[in-house]
Amino acid sequence: MPEDAAQIKAQRLSRISYLLYRHPRGLKASELAKLCNVTSRTILRDLRDLEEMGIPLWDGDCNPPRYSIIAGYYLPPVHLTLDNALALYLSTRLLARYADNYDPHIVDALSKLSTILPEPIAESVQATASSLMNRQPNETFCRVMSALTLGWATGRKVRIRYLTAESDAERECVLCPYLIEPSAVGNSTHVVGHASHVDALRTFKVERIVEAQLLTESFEVPENFDGLALLNSAWGIMFGDETQEVVLRFAPVATRRVKETCWHSSQCLEDTADGGCVLRLWVAHPEEMRYWILGWGPQVEVLAPASLRDLVAGEARAMAAVYDGEDVG
Fold first, then answer.
1. What is the mean pLDDT of the chain?
2. Residue from 157, 171, 153, 156 nearest 208 by CA
3. What is the model's pLDDT at position 277?
4. Nearest to 184 by CA among 274, 264, 240, 65
5. Which end of the chain is more exposed for a tag (fewer CB within 10 A), N or C?
6. 188 or 55, greater pLDDT
7. Beta partners for 278?
8. Helix ranges (DSSP H) in the chain
9. pLDDT at residue 130 in the model
10. Which residues, at least 6 apart from 237, have a Cβ–Cβ distance to it below 8 Å?
11. 3-class DSSP state for residue 9?
């Protein structure tokens, strides 16, 4: 599907969803077609697409049927203070930097948010929404996220097909989504939950999920599951039961920038005699810090663990070889 056609369809699906919400007694396909300026056949295809995206529809026992969205799918209104609005504005700016693709749900949310904000903030939020509309659509990601979100919100299992990290091979499992979490590493989104194929907790990168089907079978999140506490052990998204101490020594020129940010909840900073500093923290998978460390260039040295020091040193040597014109394979 051409980019323009995909974007037009995504906007139409968003509008149909909104119209169905605004008409709890339902609308006929012919009425939706007139409101959206398309044929009834197109509307029926769109309704099937909405169901595949995880939006729960019902059709009344009448002829022709009337379509609407099952009660409770949309959230009730909330009242915001100006400080609340500022917090949401800052979140939208981060979201704009984080989102790689055009997502009609994000654009729709920002457009609605802009209608209730003071004018100067509203203009910036609307500009953010407009900028996102110019990005490449990713219908697969939108469908997958909708199914996972509804599964998470309603406690229903989701059957997923996904690409493995090591190859393009596809695998399938039934997932109980316990938590959806963004990651700054690669601007990615992850879902954490119980996976049927291993009968254990697993993390899946949403961008690698090629299909997600919402099931009728329900699940309950275990009482001892604390997703946020679990992720406290992670630098990004890779959590674990055991952590390792990471020790980094920063040069004086980098010290102020290091101290300006709390990089991890476990961190501890120590000043050094030369004006530099040592950053200590405990994470489950230190290798996840590799590219963040490399971003500091020669202003940082890994002191521990040895495995991370060797990993970063190897990357640094390979980078130097590239700029020296050597063949690194």
1. 87
2. 171
3. 98
4. 264
5. C
6. 188
7. 249, 270
8. 3-22, 29-36, 40-52, 82-98, 104-114, 119-133, 139-154, 227-231, 252-259, 290-294, 306-323
9. 85
10. 181, 183, 185, 188, 190, 203, 231, 288
11. helix
